[in-house]
Design goal:
It holds the Pfam family FAA_hydrolase. One of its GO terms (molecular function) is metal ion binding. The longest helix has 10 residues. The strands form 4 sheets. Strands 3, 4, 5, 8, 9, 11, 12 and 15 form an 8-stranded mixed β-sheet that branches. A 5-stranded mixed β-sheet has the order 6-18-17-13-14, with no helix packed on it. It is α+β, with helices and mostly antiparallel strands. The protein has one domain: Fumarylacetoacetase-like, C-terminal domain (Fumarylacetoacetate hydrolase, domain 2). The protein is globular. Helix content is 16%, strand content 34%.
Length: 229
């Protein structure tokens, strides 16, 4: 392989509960996957098929970090989500086969510049800069399927400075993990290291400078971030 004229930053990684280091390829996100969140955002119907958008892999930040408050927003919102990490991929994966491609699961926070998103929606524009900004994907420790299986129920919670904000359950997801993988693989060829953030329940709200946001899913630990005041 020829020497690179430009060397990009090292790829992002996630840490496994068993000490493994997991390389990340891409981040895909599902919108409107909990009915109560659809309602609070002004929607009234199930999206069919699921709505997908992306974040760059460079947006990943580990749980426990203290970060500068994001630029260009006065309304930063938290969104606690189940994160799926793939060990293999393919195109047109059948739902019945989808879970065989999953390495493990984590809890994540799909941070959103809500004011920027609202402005984009009003103009019919893309959400890229509302969703894919620096440090916008906080992801906790990855728990391998071999250790925990495939969670389909469990509390999904988020708090800010100890104040409860979101309180849902994985069983409320409109689209299951196998359905998400099957549908997404019909749009792109999935690959090892792809990460899927699967949507958030109701209760999304603002995080201010100086505050700490903690996202939790039963059995998966937490994804916590603090913003500088």
């Amino acid at each position: 392989m020829p020497e690179l004229a430009v060397t990009p930053p090292a790829p992002k990684t996630l840490q496994g509960a068993d000490g493994a280091t997991i390389g990340v390829h891409r981040i895909f996100c599902v919108g409107q996957n909990y009915a109560d969140h659809v309602a609070e955002m002004g929607g009234d119907a199930k999206a069919d098929p699921p709505i997908f958008f992306s974040k760059p892999a460079s947006a990943i930040v580990a749980s426990g970090e203290t970060l500068p408050f994001p630029a260009a927003t006065e309304n930063l919102h938290h969104e606690v989500e189940l994160v799926v990490v793939l060990k293999s991929g393919g195109a047109d994966i059948a739902a019945d086969d989808a879970l065989g491609h999953v390495y493990g699961y984590a809890v994540g926070n799909d941070l959103t510049r809500r004011d920027m998103q609202a402005a984009a929606k009003a103009k019919g524009g893309p959400w890229d800069m509302a969703k894919g900004f620096d440090n916008s994907a906080v992801i906790g420790t990855v728990h391998a399927v071999a250790q925990i299986g495939h969670p389909t129920t469990g509390a999904v919670r988020c708090s800010v400075d100890g104040e409860a904000r979101q309180d849902g359950d994985l069983s409320q997801m409109i689209w299951s993990v196998p359905e998400i993988i099957a549908t997404l693989s019909g749009l792109v060829t999935l690959q090892a290291g792809d990460v899927i953030m699967t949507g958030t329940p109701a209760g999304v709200g603002p995080i201010k400078p100086g505050q700490t946001c903690r996202c939790e899913i039963a059995g998966l630990g937490d994804a916590t971030v603090t913003y500088q005041g």
